[in-house]
Amino acid sequence: MSKQPVLEATGIVAGYSPDLPILHGINLHVDEGEIVTIIGPNGAGKSTFVKAIAGLVTVSAGNILFNRSDITHINSHQLAKSGVGFVPQTGNVFTTLTIHENLVLGGVTLPAKKANQRIEEIYQMYPVLRERQFEKAAVLSGGQRQILAVARALLTAPKLMLLDEPTAGLSPMAATELFNVVRNLVADGASVLMVEQNARAALRISDRGYVFAEGQNRAQGTAAGLLEDNDIKQIFLGVRKKPDDNSENN
Amino acid sequence: MVLQHIADGVLSGAVVALGAIGLSFTMKILRFANFSHSELLTWGAYFGLVFLGFTTAFGEFFGGNIGPFSFGWPLLAALVLSAVATSVLALVLHALVFEKLGRGAGHMTMVFASFGIALLLRHLVVLIWGPNPIYYSNELQFAILLPGNVRVLPDQVFLLGLTIVLVVCLHLFMKHSRTGIAMRGVSENPDLAGLSGVNVNNVVRWVWVIGASLAAVAGVLYGLTVQLRPELGFGLILPLFAAAILGGAGSLYGAVIGGLVVGLSENLSVMIIPTSYKPAVPFLLILIILYFRPDGLFGERR
Question: Which helix (DSSP H) or strand (DSSP E) does residue A69 occupy?
Answer without folding.
Answer: strand A69-70
